[in-house]
Amino acid sequence: MSSTPLRPDLAAIAAMIRPGARVLDVGCGDGALLEHLKAKNVDGRGIEIAQANVNACVARGLAVVQGDADTDLVDYPAQVFDAVILSQTIQATEKPRVVMEHLLRIGRRVAISLPNFGYWKVRLSLLAGGRMPRTRTLDYSWWATPNIHLCTLADFVDLANECGATIVEAYALDEHGGSRKVEPGSLSHGWLGPNLFAQGGVFLLKKT
């Protein structure tokens, strides 16, 4: 297992995964989370769109294949995984609702992390500067960003409800790398609470 600390959202997701679980990490990147989960005897598989990342994962003994969340999840049978993970990716997919529905179909639980476009510094930057903001989690110029469906935490809760999902757990991420558990209902408030003060969020979902 790597000694490099996990990214804060990945650490929160790792804590949600039960020992011995069968897991699919969609958009697994460099495989840091899959490697970390080996300590829990997790049967981890990954899908990653970048071939260079796939090659690096395979070289480290991780079961990762090249694939695209927007097109390849349809090939997976229902309820084949105990947990499906999508970290910092749903805002970069072409059809977030379709992707979400596939995740809920494939896994008994779904762990998702995403940046929060409702974060107060983002709002202030838009108000004061009149330009698309850049933060630690949204660090791209508008014309170069892979994030094509930016949303707030409240928006994500709406999507989960529309997809027939129940939020089992929710965590707010701060700019210092900390996370705290929050009541899912508090995320629907636009001006106060986590939707204003969290830089990102982590959710554990199940099909209702």
- Strand residue content: 15-25%
Number of strands: 8
Which CATH architecture?
3-Layer(aba) Sandwich
Would you identify the CATH H-level superfamily? Vaccinia Virus protein VP39
Helix content: 25-40%
Structural class from helices and strands? alpha/beta
Given the structure, what is the number of helices? 8
Task: Give average pLDDT, whole number.
Answer: 92
With strands numbered from the N-terminus, the spatial order across the biggest sheet is: 3-2-1-4-5-8-6-7
What oligomeric assembly is this protein in? single chain
Based on CA atoms alone, the radius of gyration comes out at: 16 Å
Within the CATH hierarchy, at the fold level, what is the topology? Rossmann fold
How many domains? 1
Q: What order do the SSEs take from the amino end to the carboxyl end, as H and E?
A: HEHEHEHEHEHHEEHE
What is the makeup of the main sheet?
A: 8 strands, mixed
Apparent shape: globular
Low-confidence stretches: none
